[in-house]
Amino acid sequence: MSLVVADLRLTLRGTPLFAPVSFAVPSGAVMSVMGRSGIGKSSLLAAIAGHLDPQITCHGTIHLQGTDLACLPPERRQLGMIFQEPSLFPHLSLGDNLAFGLAAGGGREKRRAAIDAALESAGLAGMYGADPDTLSGGQKSRASLMRCLLSQPRALLMDEPFAALDMELRAEMRSFVFAHIRAHNIPAILVTHDPTDAEAANGPCITLHHI
Amino acid sequence: MKFKYLLSALCLFIAPPAMAQTWQETLDAARGQTVYWHAWGGDPRTNSYIDWVNEQMQARFGVTVAQVPLTDTAEAVTRVLSERAAGQDTGGAVDLIWINGPNFLAMKEQDLLFGPFVSRLPNARFVDLSPDAPASVDFTVPVEGMESPWRLAKFVFIHDSARVPNPPRTMADLLDWARANEGRFTHPDPSNFMGASFLKQALISLVDDPAALQRPVTEADYDALTAPLWAWYDALRPLMWRGGETFPENESIQARLMNDGEIDITMSFDPSYAAAAIGLGLLPDTARVFVPEGGTLGNISFVAIPYNAAHPEAAQVVADFLLSPEAQAHMQNIDNLGAFSVLDPARLDAEAAAFFADLPQSPALPDLADLGPTLLEPHASWMTAISEDWAARYAR
Amino acid sequence: MGRAARIMVWGCAGAILLGPILLGLWVSLRASLGVFPALGSVDLTLAPYRALMETPGIWAAMWLSLRTGLVASLISFGLAVTFVAQARGSRLLAPLLAPFLAIPHAAIALGLAFLIAPSGWIMRVIALPFDLQTPPDWPLVNDPAGLALILGLIIKETPFLIIVMAAALSQLPLTRHLRIGASLGYSRPQIWAYVILPQLYPLIRPPVMVVLAYGLSVVDMALILGPNTPPSFAVMVMRLFSAPDLALLMPAFAGAVVQVVLILFALLALIVLERLLAHFGRAALRRGIRRTITVPQPVMALPRLVMGMGLFSILCLGLWSITWRWPWPAPLPTTWSMRLWQSAEWQDALRVSLGIAGASVALSLILALLILEAHGRTARALTPLIYLPLLVPQIGFLFGVNSALLNIGVASGVGGVIWGHILFVCPYMLLLLMDPWRAIPRPLLHCAASLGAGPWRRFFAVKLPLMLRPICIAAAVGFGVSIAQYLPTLFLGGGRVASLTTEAVALASGGDRRITGVYGSLKAAVPLLAYLAAFLIPRTIWRNRRAMREGVV
Q1: Structurally, how many domains does chain C consist of?
Q2: Contact state of B68 with C495 under an 8 Å Cβ cutoff
Q3: What percent of chain A has pLDDT over 90?
Q4: Most buried of B36, B295, C364, C454, CB within 10 angstroms?
Q5: Is the bond leading into A86 cis (omega within 30 degrees of zero)?
C-alpha cells in the first residue's frame, strides 16, 4: 500500500467541500476520482501535493510509502503533477524543461543522455532545443509527463490530463501514461470527468459527494 | 545612543587640527584634500574658469576643487546654518563660498565664518588691503580678513548699438528712452543680486544725499531717501518689457532676452561681459557697454570659508591661488573669463605685471577710463530694504 | 515565505519607504509650530505661520498653485478621455506613448519654454512671413496667470492618463457597452458620459489624484515655466528654505505643512467635483434624452496637438544643443556647432545620474520583489504604500528628512540621494509589477514545486525569467523616475550631488539655451534609451521563445 489517505476533509471558511474520503492506492495502480464540477477534485490533488489555497483548510492524514506528507513542503513531497494544460515552462527549451525535472546529480553527459532517452521515448527525439510553444498538443503532453517522470516521483497526480485532447490522441496518450506508471511502479491518482478514462485506468474509483 | 557616541568620537578623530602654524604647514595639510566650492553655477564661463582652477590646483598643490553649482548663493549659507542647527560643527559640506554683500553680512553676524585668514595668504601682498580700500569693505561691512577678494565687479549697462545707437546717459534719460521704446527695457528680478543692484544704482543716482546711504537704514530716513526712486520707478515700470509684471530671473536670462531681440538693453556687474558674451555667441556682435554719467556702483567678489568647513587648509590654498597674478591674468583674459583683476597694479612686480601685458582686446571691451568713477556701495541693509520694499510694492 | 520573513519584509519596506515620509512630515509639523530643538526653539507657537502669511504675495502664490494644479489636471483628464474615446486598439498605443512618460518634466519644460516664447521657435517661423521686426511683447512664458505652466503640465500628464485609461479600459467590456448604448439610441459622447466614464473613473482615480497632487507641488517645471512675481507656492516655499536668513527656516516648514494642506484641499475639491458630476450626470441620464452630440474636429485633434508640442519641445532641446548662434528672427540656427557636446562637463553629471539611477533602480527592484513575494496574491493592500509617496508633496517632508538625518549624524551625500530616489522609484515599480506578478500562472509554479524546486529555485528559475519583460519595463520607468528627481537630489545631496537634473535646472537660470539643450537632450535621451533597452532585451533573450516574445504569459 503506498499512497494512503485517511478521513480527508477540505473546508472553505468552515464549509466542507465534500464528504470525508479515505482511500489507498497501491503502487502501479491508477485510482480515478470523479464528481461534479466545483466539488473540489482539483483541491483534493492540491491538498496531497501541498499547493492548497491558503483559504482552504485540510484535515485528515496523507501518507506516502509510510511518510506523513502534511509537514513536508511541496518540493520535498516528490509527487509528480500533470495538468490539463501541459505546463511546460515557456522560457526554457524543451530539453531544458526536462533538465529542470531531472533529479540532480550525475555528470553533464549522463544527464544529457537521460534527457535524450526520455525525449526519444516520448517521440520527440532530437528536439532538445525546440521552443515549447511550437509543439503540438500531444507533443506538449508527452513532454510534460516525461519531465515529471524524470524527477523520479513517488506518486503521480493527474488533473484531467486528457481533457484537452481529441478522441484519437486521448487514447494514445492514455496508454502512453499508464504504461509509464506501470513501468515506474508508482501509485497514481487521475481526476477526470470522462468514464472511459476511469475504465481505461482499470483501478479503484471514488466519486466525491456533497455532504 | 552608543552609535551616536561612536559617531561623535569619529568626528573628533577626523576633525581638522587647530589652525596650521605656517603657510608651508597649511600647504602640507591641504595636499590630498577636496575643496567643495559653492559658487553660483549660472555662468558657464565662471564654471569653466573654476575647472581651470581645479586643474591648476591639482597639478601644483595636490588639491581638488569641486564646484557645487548654486542657483543662489543663499543656498550655501542655508546649508551652513542648517548644519550648525543640527550641531554639525566640523566636517561641514561647504568649504568655500563665492560671496559678498548681504550673504557675507549674514554669515559674519552669526559667526559662521572661518578666519581671519586673508593676511596670511602669500599673494595678499598684491592687494591693497588698507582700511578704506575696496577689498577691505564689502558693502560698507568691514571685511576684517574673513573673506578673500577674487574678482572685481562694476555695474555697466549693455546696449545693442545696431538698435540703440545713442543710449541714455542718466537714469532720468532712461525713463525718456523707455517712453519712446515701450517694452524694450527690463531689469532682473530684485530678489536677485543683479536686480537689486539695478535698484541700488538707480537709488544712488537719484538720491539727494548719497552719503546717507553709507549708514544702515533707519525708518526715519528711509521713506524720504527712497521717495525719488519709487516715483521714478512707478513711471518706468509700465513702460518695461511685459508691462513690468514679470522680470527675468537674473542678468544671464536678461542677456538672452537681448540676444533673442526681445529687449535692447541689459546690464552686468562685469565690464568685460559684453566682449566675452559676443565671443561666446551669447550677445549680438553689435553689443556695447555704456555707463551713466556720474559713475556706477562697484564692488569686489570674495571667497569665504565656513567655520565648520571640512577642509579649511585647502580652501585657504585655493583662495591664495585665486589671488596669484597668473590666475588673475588668466581670469581677466576675455578668452577665458574676462573678469577684472582685484590686484593693485602699483603693487605688481615686473614678473607679476608680465602676466597682464598681452591680454587680448575687443571693440566691446571698455577701457577703465570709459567706465567713469566707481561709486561706493550703500550699506548692505539698503539692498535688503529696497528689495523687500519692492516685493511688497509690486509682487501681488 | 515564512511568517517571520514576511513580517521582516514588511518592517523593512515600511522603514525604507514610509519611514522617511512620516518622519519628515513629523519634523516639518513640529518645526512649523516652533519646535526645532536644533535651533534652540522648543515652545509651541503659531509664529512661523504668522510669519509665512506675512510673506508678500503668499496668497496669490497659493491661489496660483491651486488654480494651475486643478486646471491642468482637469484639462489633461479631458484630453485623455477625448483621445481614448476615439482611439481604436488602445493596446497598441501604450508602447508608443510610454517613452513619452519617460521624459522628465524639466526636459519638456526647457524645450517648451523656447518653443512658445515670444521670441521662440513658433514665432521665428512666422516672423518672416508676418514681417515681425521684433518679437511681440506678450507674456507667453512665465506669464502671471501660469498658463505656460498649465500647458507644460498638460503635455506631460495627458500621455500618462491616456496610458492609465487604456489599461483600465481593457478590463471593461467597452465594445459591448458602446453597441448596447448605440442600439438604445444614444450618441457616442453620451454613452461615454453615461456608461463608460462612471465605470472607468473608479479604476483610475488614484492616478488622477497623483496627477493633481503633482501639478500642485511641482518645483522644477514651475521654476522654468511658471510666473516669478509671485511664483507658485512650492517654489516660494523652496526659496524660503534656501534663504540666508535663519529666521525664515521655521516659516519655510510652515509652508511645507501648508503645501500638504493645499493638496488635501485640492483633493477635497476633486471629490466634491466628482460628486457633483455624478449627481448631475445621473439626473441627465434619468431624463432619457437622446441627443446627437458631435465633438468638433479641432477638439478631437487637441490631444494630438498637445503631444506634438511635447515632441517639438524635445526637438528644440536637441537643436539648441548643436547651435552656436540662432538670432531672431532666423527660423533655424545660423551657426551650428558641436562645441558644447565636446566640452566634457556634462559627462560627470551623466555619470552621477546613471550611477544613482542604476543603484536606486536595483535596490528598488530588490525591495519590490521582496514585497511582492511577501505579499503573495493579496497585493491590493499595497496600494496605500504605493500612493503615499506620490501624493505627499516632496517639499512637505524632504527638508524634514534632511534635518533628521543631520541630527543623527548622517551627512548628506550620494547615499541619502539614492534613498530619496527609492522613495519614488520603488512605488512606480511596484505599481507596474503588481498585476503581472499576480498573473503568473499558478500551475507552472505548482509543477516546479512538484518537480522538487524549492522556493529559491522557483523564484530564480521560474518566476524571474517569466517576469523578465515586466521587470525590464518597470526598471526603465524607474530609471526615468530617478533621472527626473530634482528636490530629493538637491536636498538630500546637500547640493553636492550634481545630477543631470540639478545641473539642467541650475543652468536654466544661466540663460544659455545651448548648454541647457545639451543637458535637456541627455535628460530626455537617457530614459528613452532605457525604455528602448527594456523593449529590446526581452525580445533578444526570447528570440527563440514564441510565447515569451508575444507576452502570452
Answers
A1: 2
A2: yes
A3: 49
A4: C364
A5: no
